[in-house]
Predict the structure.
Amino acid sequence: MLVVWGRANSVNVQKVLWCCAEMGLAYERKDAGGPFGIVNTPEYRRMNPNGLVPTIVDDDLVLWESHAIVRYLAARHSRGGLCPADQKARAVADQWMDWHVSTLWPALRPLFLGLIRTPPEQRDLAGIESARKKCAEALEMLDHRLTATEYVAGDTFTMADIALGCGVWRWMALPIERPSLPSAQRWFDMLARRPAFKEIVMQPLS
Ligand SMILES: N[C@@H](CCC(=O)N[C@@H](CS)C(=O)NCC(=O)O)C(=O)O
């Protein structure tokens, strides 16, 4: 059976778990990272030299990097579904997944860490506000995209929605001022009606 290493409150682990749940794919999750440690043991580092989660073990394949994992699982178990069969549609899904890594998450991560993982008296308020503005600018791009299509990569739900949805939930759940982004909100509301998203991703931030 597929094994997923990683604590369930990690944004990157949640992408993998949500992907599996959407496909009805059975897996065993093993806690690692954060308070569970394990990621610095020689055994874990042999699987994932970064010492980060998630890592999956699927028969003889050991794989890390959440988007590589989501792409692999979707291509293997849901070609024509979560992984678009059409090359151009797939390239668009890849594009937005890469954008999450290169643009949205670098802005969102300091906001999340600043507000959720840093005690109030130690917060860098100017840094938090600057990250909030950067996120809002990035999400305006997503909002614009979603004026043209139902979902991120086109008119069907794909792996790109999984990658971005996990980040955008954090934006929605943080105690911050958010600009009105009607198309992104419409898309988020559709995600929020998916049982697996609700169960795996829409959890209190920690
Ligand atoms: N680019 C990697 C980033 C992985 C990452 O930063 N994981 C975080 C959790 S979201 C982690 O392992 N942090 C250390 C820990 O949990 O001990 C991916 O997408 O998988």
